């Protein structure tokens, strides 16, 4: 709080400083001379700013005598700039006529092709969300932003476990041995590792989402797209802002920045801060609340101008997440006084011991140097480190069957050098090289109360196994079928228990069943003359009376163990996976103008990479009795024991590329492309075997049309695509040696395909009022057969986390009230159809379609050199109930869990800009 107070104090001090010299006035009109109300008038490099009145006039007072650079901006018009001199007298500029700028209405500048272009020019589907739009619609999280990007979904169950979906393809695996399908970048630096990829969206210039295979532009991880976050950099002028609010569930936030020139024209600094907190939506009977939020993020950006052709930006980012736990709630058992709805209160026994704590930090150095009129050299250096610790109740009940933590750590370094050729000739492009290094790990400690795991999972498992073994033994001994059936029933009865949770309370079982009387009875029937009535099982084994081979040795050992002895309370075991990746890449991409309107773009990236996967799971001490019984004598339950850390490595040579043809007519662009994308292979290493999954390859075929019509008032985009996959990487529950449960492992899903259509519209009814919307259709499925014609496991199944239909719409109205004030209203609505949460398309792991309504509205006015914005905001205003994830780790033991989505939050907010 001390830093926040200091930040506010600095803004107040700055706002009190002013000169008291001359005045500057004028009138802003369009080409026809009609006044433009609400235009922004600013003296660049200073804090002097105002907006035009209803008649288009403006006045700046108390200006220190000096030479200034005047800038006048208005949406839909070209920015007007000129030099002005102010002295002690008043200076009247007369009429300032702004020229229409159709590009400003429907287009934005993007750097997707590593050079500055408008969004209409690039021959690919790229959706851009500006920082202004993020602010206007009150969006600070990636999942909120994704609703306005057609074909994109972000599943944000926590900052430690996000899922990114572009055109039906999901990238969310936290295993350090797996590589992402979707690349995420901050200012050109990869942040794709799942546990370190979630960042707060504050003080952002824009977010670009490039769809389809973009490996040429964004590296080997951009197999199906890339999300690029461009942050605001330091500027050579003073500016500051503070923005805060308070709402339901104790939702509070404050963010802002202060931009300060240090050496005029040479050095400037920008410090930005963001804090957001909210109580959890889900109460927890065991203590605390779940599904809440608390995050603080800081960014410092320093820019150096090294002459007219060189800039250097040093950007330091740090984010600390301190969330309460996530409500992984079971639908099998309701808490006391509650129900199994994932959106109502839970009873997860660890209470406030459930949490998410995550540190993410990074340093970025961007150097851009113009060698001459045509060539520019860019250097992008990045370092990033993260440390995340999450504690969660994986079974979702009051019984401690599976209390799990995930401790993920990693560091990465990247360096890219790029030469860009751009001189408005018939050819523009770039060549370059890059190096990437990453070293990460994921440790998963487990704490299991075996007294509740027994009735919850182990008892029916053991009952079934032993019943089958006894049945086979009876048949081999020639016992009558009726007697064999009776023995099997007796065994199953020994393992019958009460449900693990009854009336919201765990039902621990204190002792193992005693199988020895049943075994003694069976042997008594097999031996002539029977057994002495007082003989015990141990005495029988030691006596030698049992003929060799009568009972299998494994069964004798099992009967010896199952003697009614106490069950262990707490069992602890842990496993860690390791991933180390190094890659060297060479790339080139360019556009050649075949004619003035017809352009051909081609790109190629070659990669040499070396991957190393590791695994370690030590033997639990004391050992699990259930591991000894049901897991082939292992001291562990779920994690195969390794002898120390075991490693496996593999090297790959690969290439990705693209070829695109586009035709520009007016401010419109029709394009077609074919591209090859690739996801690196997976090294799945276990003590019993190491599996090398082949790299996943996709061929993409896309065509689109986008541009501006109706005098630039209507911006549109339309794209259709078809993807063809080989070696599609998925996750499936697999039986592995050394675990009593199936494990969710990387798997080769074979052949798959998807077809989709996307469209987006934005219409400016007037510069002060626009409507917008988008729609996406995705039909992504596994093929019926693989390349050899064999039936596939997931034949015909839809891709997980992929709505077939989704859309968003809204409008943005800014209504001038006086010369220096206006009111605004910005409602929006987004919808997605039903999704499966797993590729196996289980009906119990499904969310039907739903929509969310949001709004911001308020009143904005200027006073002196500051502007003020007082408003209200609402998210999910109709309190629609839905789930954002299902299945999860609890599904391994037959207890799938479900996570409820965000509830309705309505609040008030205030923004002050200097």
Automatic annotation (TrEMBL):
Record has Cell membrane as a keyword: no
Keyword flag Transmembrane: yes
Domain TonB-dependent receptor plug positions: 121-225
Record's keyword terms, sorted: Cell outer membrane, Ion transport, Iron, Iron transport, Membrane, Receptor, Signal, TonB box, Transmembrane, Transmembrane beta strand, Transport
Record localization: Cell outer membrane
Membrane protein topology class: Multi-pass membrane protein
Secretion signal span: 1-19
Family annotation (Pfam families): CarboxypepD_reg, Plug
Family the entry assigns: Belongs to the TonB-dependent receptor family.
Official protein name in the record: TonB-dependent receptor
Organism: Parapedobacter deserti
């Amino acid at each position: 709080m001390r830093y926040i107070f200091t930040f506010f104090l600095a803004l107040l001090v700055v706002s009190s400083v002013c000169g008291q010299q001359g005045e500057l006035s004028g009138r802003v009109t369009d080409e026809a001379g009609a006044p433009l109300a609400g235009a922004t008038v600013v003296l660049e490099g200073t804090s002097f700013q105002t907006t035009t009145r209803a008649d288009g006039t403006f006045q700046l007072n108390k200006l220190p005598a000096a030479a200034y650079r005047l800038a006048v901006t208005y949406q839909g018009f070209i920015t007007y700039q000129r030099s002005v001199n102010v002295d002690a007298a008043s200076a009247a500029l007369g009429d300032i006529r702004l020229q229409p700028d159709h590009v400003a209405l429907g287009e934005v500048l993007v750097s997707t092709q590593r050079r500055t272009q408008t969004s209409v020019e690039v021959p690919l589907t790229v959706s851009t969300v500006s920082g202004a739009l993020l602010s206007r619609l009150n969006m600070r999280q990636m999942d909120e932003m994704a609703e306005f990007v057609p074909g994109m979904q972000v599943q944000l169950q926590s900052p430690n476990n996000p899922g990114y979906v572009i055109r039906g393809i999901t990238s969310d695996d936290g295993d350090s041995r797996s590589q992402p399908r979707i690349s995420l970048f901050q200012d050109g630096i990869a942040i794709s590792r799942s546990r370190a990829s979630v960042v707060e969206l504050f003080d952002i210039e824009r977010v670009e989402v490039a769809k389809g295979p973009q490996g040429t532009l964004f590296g080997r991880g951009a197999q199906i797209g890339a999300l690029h976050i461009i942050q605001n950099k330091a500027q050579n002028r003073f500016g500051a802002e503070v923005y805060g609010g308070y709402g339901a569930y104790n939702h509070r936030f404050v963010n802002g920045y202060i931009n300060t020139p240090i050496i005029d024209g040479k050095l400037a600094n920008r410090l930005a801060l963001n804090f957001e907190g909210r109580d959890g939506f889900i109460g927890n009977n065991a203590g605390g609340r779940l599904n809440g939020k608390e995050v603080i993020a800081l960014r410092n950006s320093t820019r150096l101008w090294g002459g007219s052709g060189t800039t250097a930006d040093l950007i330091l980012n740090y984010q600390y997440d301190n969330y309460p736990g996530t409500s992984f709630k079971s639908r099998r058992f309701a808490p006391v006084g509650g129900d199994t709805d994932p959106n109502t209160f839970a009873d997860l026994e660890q209470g406030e011991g459930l949490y998410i704590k995550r540190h993410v930090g990074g340093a970025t150095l961007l150097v851009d140097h113009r060698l001459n009129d045509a060539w520019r050299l860019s250097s992008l250096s990045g370092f990033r480190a993260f440390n995340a610790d999450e504690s969660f109740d994986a079974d979702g009940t009051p019984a401690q069957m599976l209390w799990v933590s995930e401790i993920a750590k990693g560091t990465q370094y990247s360096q890219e050098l790029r030469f860009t050729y751009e001189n408005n000739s018939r050819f523009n492009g770039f060549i370059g090289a890059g190096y990437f290094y990453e070293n990460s790990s994921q440790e998963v400690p487990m704490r299991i109360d075996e007294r509740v795991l027994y009735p919850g999972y182990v008892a029916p498992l053991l009952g079934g196994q032993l019943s089958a073994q006894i049945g086979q033994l009876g048949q081999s001994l020639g016992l009558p079928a009726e007697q064999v059936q009776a023995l099997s029933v007796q065994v199953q009865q020994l393992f019958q228990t009460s449900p693990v949770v009854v009336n919201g309370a765990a039902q621990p079982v204190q002792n193992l069943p005693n199988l020895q009387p049943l075994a003694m009875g069976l042997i008594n029937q097999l031996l002539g003359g029977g057994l002495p009535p007082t003989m015990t099982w141990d005495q029988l084994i030691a006596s030698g009376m049992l003929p060799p081979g009568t009972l299998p040795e494994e069964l004798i050992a099992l009967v010896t163990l199952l003697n009614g002895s106490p069950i262990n309370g707490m069992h602890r075991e842990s496993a860690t996976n390791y991933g180390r990746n190094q890659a060297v890449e060479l790339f080139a991409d360019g556009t050649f103008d075949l004619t003035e309107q017809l352009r051909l773009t081609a790109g190629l990236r070659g990669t040499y990479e070396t991957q190393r996967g590791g695994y370690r799971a030590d033997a639990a001490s004391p050992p699990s009795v259930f591991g000894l019984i049901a897991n082939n004598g292992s001291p562990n339950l779920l994690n195969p024991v390794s002898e120390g850390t075991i490693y496996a490595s593999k090297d790959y040579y690969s290439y990705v590329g693209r070829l695109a043809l586009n035709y520009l007519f007016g401010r419109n662009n029709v394009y077609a492309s074919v591209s090859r994308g690739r996801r690196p292979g997976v090294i799945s290493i276990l003590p019993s075997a190491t599996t090398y999954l082949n790299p996943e390859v996709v061929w993409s075929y896309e065509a689109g049309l986008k541009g501006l019509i109706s005098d630039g008032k209507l911006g549109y985009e339309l794209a259709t695509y078809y993807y063809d996959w080989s070696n599609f990487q998925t996750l499936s529950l697999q039986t592995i040696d050394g675990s009593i449960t199936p494990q969710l492992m990387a798997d080769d899903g074979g052949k798959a395909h998807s077809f989709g259509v996307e469209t987006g519209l934005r219409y400016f009814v007037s510069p002060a009022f626009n409507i917008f919307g988008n729609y996406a259709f995705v039909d992504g499925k596994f093929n019926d057969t693989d390349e050899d014609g064999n039936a596939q496991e997931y034949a015909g199944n839809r891709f997980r986390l992929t709505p077939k239909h989704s859309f968003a719409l809204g409008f943005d109205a800014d209504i001038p009230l006086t010369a220096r004030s206006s009111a605004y209203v910005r409602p929006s609505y987004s919808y997605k159809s039903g999704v499966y949460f797993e590729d196996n398309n289980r009906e119990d792991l499904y969310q039907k379609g739903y929509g969310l309504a949001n709004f911001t509205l308020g009143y904005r006015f200027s006073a002196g050199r500051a502007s003020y914005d007082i408003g209200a905001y609402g998210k999910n205003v109709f309190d629609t109930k839905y789930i954002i994830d299902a299945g999860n780790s609890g599904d391994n033991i037959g207890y799938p869990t479900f996570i409820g989505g965000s509830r309705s939050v309505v609040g008030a907010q205030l923004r002050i800009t200097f």
